[in-house]
Amino acid sequence: MIDLRDVRFEYTQGGFSLCVPELRISAGTKAAAIGPSGSGKTTLLNVISGIACPDGGRVNTASVRVDSLSLAARRSFRIKTIGFVFQDFLLLDYLDVLENILYPYRLHHDLVLDADARARAQRLAADLGIDRLLRRSPDELSQGERQRVAIARALVTAPKLVLADEPTGNLDPATKQRTIDLLFDQCDALSMTLLMVTHDHGLLDRFDQVVDVSAFGGSEP
Ligand code: ADP
Ligand code: MG
Q1: Which ligand is nearest the CA of 35, by number?
Q2: Is 28 exposed, middle or buried (0-12, 13-18, 19+ CB in 10 A)?
Q3: Ligand 1 contacts CB of residue 42 (under 6 A)
Q4: Full-model pTM
Q5: Pocket of ligand 1 contains residue 214 by CB under 6 Å
Q6: Domain coordinates of the chain in residue numbers?
Q7: pLDDT 10s per residue in the chain (221 long)?
Q8: Which residues are registered as beta bridge partners of 165?
Q9: Superfamily for 2-215?
């Protein structure tokens, strides 16, 4: 599902570079990405998803050579193939919670907002404990509630790959467990592959694979 070779990425202003000689994550795997703050976890997810384009090497995600696509093709690929839980959620305050969850359907004509999709959104909201908030604006929610909206939005299209950037970072312990259980159950039920950034080392034995990003990232003077 994910196959990176000799990947190099550097921000244009310099200061940080990511070098990944090899990273393979098979379909159906639940993988954790770990590493201290600033080690390049978010950058790695961006490279895998095509948000960031590498300076060298090959990025193969869901059997697509993402690094050789145009910007528009990368965006289209990402919307169709990947459910992304962004570290800062990226919810839209001018839409209500339900519209935020269903937002991917506005972005790509291949994603059809039918009765099944609406039922999935309702079901995810109920499972995540946010179903009574569907008509609110995201700016009327707590951080933990916003985080769960972002998770529902990432899962609603039943994507092949879920990239989740610290998706439980703002949740209390009980909600955290419930959210992880839901993420894992959804991955099993829909045969999704999961790559999830976490700082919670107590969770690591639940994953099939652990990727230590600090081995890839480096700061330059
Ligand atoms: P992590 O997610 O592990 O905390 P990031 O991937 O966000 O780490 O960042 C890795 C390094 O890249 C950090 O030193 C950060 O300051 C730098 N960085 C992140 N985003 C940008 C950007 N858009 N432009 C320049 N440098 C960035
Ligand atoms: Mg990060």
Answers
A1: 1
A2: middle
A3: yes
A4: 0.94
A5: no
A6: 2-215
A7: 999 999 999 998 888 999 999 999 999 999 999 999 999 999 999 999 999 999 999 999 999 999 999 999 999 999 999 999 998 899 999 999 999 999 999 999 999 999 999 999 999 999 999 999 999 999 999 999 999 999 999 999 999 999 999 998 888 888 888 889 989 998 998 899 999 999 999 899 999 999 999 999 777 65
A8: 197
A9: P-loop containing nucleotide triphosphate hydrolases (3.40.50.300)
